[in-house]
Amino acid sequence: MTALLKKRALAQYSIVEPPVNKPLKKLRLVKKPTQASAAVYVGLLENSKTSNDAMQLLLRISDSLHFKEEDIPGIIRKLADHFNQQNESAVRVKILSIFRSIGRMAGADPGLLIEQTIKMIQKETSHKVIAQGLTTLLDVSQYIYRQDDHLLKMIYNIAKHYLKDTNHWVKQVCFRIIGNLKQNDSLKVIADYIHSQDARVRSAAMETLVILHEDGEKLEASMYPDVCQALNDDYEIVRAAALKLVCLIGNAYSENVVKVPNTVEEIRLIDDAFSKICQAVNDLSMQVRYQAMQLLGSMTKVDPYFLNQTLDKKLMSNMRKKKSLHERSSEIVTSGEWSTGKKWADDAPKELLDKDEVNVVSSGSCGAFVHGLEDEFMEVRSASVDALCNLAIHHPEFAVLSLDFLVDMFNDEIEAVRIKAIDSLTQMSHHIILREHQLETILGALEFSKEQRVSPLMLFQRQFL
Fold it and tell me: Which fold has domain 34-180?
């Protein structure tokens, strides 16, 4: 009872105040404009005392590369003026790199950038700066309309001028410009450098010729002997590039006739190119072997006689016409060249062969795919399976010969190669008929992973249904 009275007394004298809504404090977020920040750094370049300070400012400019459209021409001129005042090549390279980035911005004038860049590198002696300047010209030229021939020809002539530079990197950038801005003399200009002393220049020149050919500038068949010599180059980058050219020329002029060295025999250009590329299967470099196998699959016009030899390790005849004993004897009688015994070695064989001169239809073509399928690198084996499949699709007789080799690839240690071999058989299934012992090997593939079990089932579906 006492507790109840106490509670009522407290209820009478307690005052409940209504809650007061406090006004919310408004915060204003001020975002600094970033458009003027890069322009501010450009203005600070004039006050930089050392090249290190200038480089720090240039790095900030490249990180916050935002300019107002109307400020871009003035900024380009300020950077060009600072370029001429700098003695440090690294700073000059960075300025040209910023020019390259400005060229990608909306509202930038490509013509102004090109003119300023050409003026800046005309008296330049540093190879790094020249290479960066040419790279800038190459990138900016992509934003020029093709109708503006004046600027494009100006860039093209600058690239031709700097081909005389001794630095390999400068020449490589020049090749890229000439390959991109194609003119009437592009092939001739680039072809002169496939015999350069620098392997990097030789390789870059050949790669540029490949690009020109793919863009519609057809290579000349007269280049074929020079390109074949490059297949024996000491540097793998040159050999790999030469393989591409041999393949392109062989496919482009497949019916042309070339003479087999040290003989009177002639064969088609595509057959000779095929045998040359087959020789690269035994190259020391894995990249060259991989490149050779990829290219072999694209040479579908090759004669079946040459193609079938790639699956046989036996050496072929040396491409000479074989005469019967009767024909050889009749020639001796008609010529009257019987041995009298009075002259030393007058009965010696007429044809003295040196072991290095014997041409076995390019002995490298004999068993080329056998070597490729047995290569120690899975990349080469995988490329060999692809090439074998592509050629087999176009040559039914070759498909029958290659069947055993593809089935043997089901036992490869790499799963990707095994799956590729099964898929290849599936693609050429309309040319082949599986035998009992081959079916046993294929059925063994069903014991492997789930992905590998799908491919044999697809093969059986095409083969038997």
Answer: Leucine-rich Repeat Variant (1.25.10)
Per the document, the length of the chain is: 465
Q: Give burial (CB, 10 Å; 0-12/13-18/19+) of 247.
A: buried
| CB of 276 closer than 8 Å to CB of 362 | yes
The burial class, CB within 10 Å (0-12 / 13-18 / 19+), for 338 is exposed
| φ/ψ bin of 58: left (φ > 0), alpha (ψ from -120 to 50), beta (otherwise) | alpha
pLDDT single digits (tens) 88-138: 999 999 999 999 988 888 778 888 899 999 999 988 999 999 999 999 999
Distance (Å, whole) CA 351 – CA 344: 17
Amino acid in the structure at residue 96: L
CA angle 318/323/324 to nearest 5° reads: 130
pLDDT single digits (tens) 76-87 = 888 888 888 888
In the chain, where are the structural domains located? 34-180
* DSSP, res 448: S
Three-class SS of residue 17? Answer: coil
